[in-house]
Amino acid sequence: MMVSDQSLDAILVRHLQELGRESEDGKLNPVRREDGRTGIVDLLLGRAHQGSSGREHLIVELKAPRVKIGQAEVAQIKSYAEAVVSDPQFRDARVSWDFWVVSTEMAEIVRRDANAPNRPPGCIAEWEGGVRIWARTWSEIIDDCEERLHFYRERLNHDPATEHAVEYLRRVHGEVAPEAVVVVGG
Fold first, then answer.
1. What is the model's pTM?
2. 3-state class (DSSP) for residue 110
3. Which one of 65, 82, 116, 133 has the minimum C-beta count within 10 Å?
């Protein structure tokens, strides 16, 4: 985790540190939303890709369980995205940004956007410059994680040693190997 419960200004400082640079003039200009207010980000997570192919940043806005993700919550996360996209201090061609708003429920109008056929599930907007906006419920996130866990668990339960052993027996001792070993391997 890079930053939690910090302003967009703190996000900029951390972003520039990760890129190994400072602001162009040595001081930071405040990052403001369209309405002039600062935004307080619940979580900023980041990672570097292998090699020098760039970075990914994830900004998460966590809503209380009783708050349904509606147009106001989407407007808030979009205002954070707009503040980042509009600020020249954040510009870097090798950085992608994902902005998530997360709660237990979402309004039907948001759900329609989150299930658009031309975008990944949960993605409600994609902007130029590698910026995506997401609305997700906790149950969707948990289901996705369980699916990935099941996929990897299934793959890890595979025992390649048996296949390699049978292949070795066939190749080296095929003429004297018992028929049962040859049949078991296929």
1. 0.70
2. helix
3. 65
